[in-house]
Specification:
Radius of gyration: 15 Å
Number of strands: 12
Strand order of the largest sheet: 7-8-9-10
Distance between the termini: 23 Å
Shape: globular
Order of helices and strands: EEEEEEEEEEEE
Length: 138
Amino acid sequence: MAFVYEQKFNTLNDGDLNGQDSWTANNFYDVQTTTKYEGAKGIAFINPDVDKDAYRSFTIVTAGTMYVALRKSATGAQATFNLNETGAGNYLFRLDFATDGNIKGQHNTTWTTYQAYTANQWYILEVTWDEVAHSRQV
């Protein structure tokens, strides 16, 4: 059976993401109704001057496809989205909205620049990975 997880945040309570649907967010991410890609709600990082993660653990998945809708309000600070291998310390993939205005991806130590981004514009990113074949595609 294929791995399926969908979270549009519409059914979560407004306010702190931490503890909702097994998310750990260090009180820096809020479920809110102002900035969203679709539906009624989205997640906002409430202190861009602090480097804090929001994460959720899953059972090990060696292959799959993930979609994520991201936007940044400015290019001055880096925003990162990671999918990590449990216990291995490696990224299955890492996506950065970097301070140089580019969307970049990393696997282990290899970086790829995908495209430039514009502040306040939504980007839907599809990432497909296969750990057995050691492949990633954004």
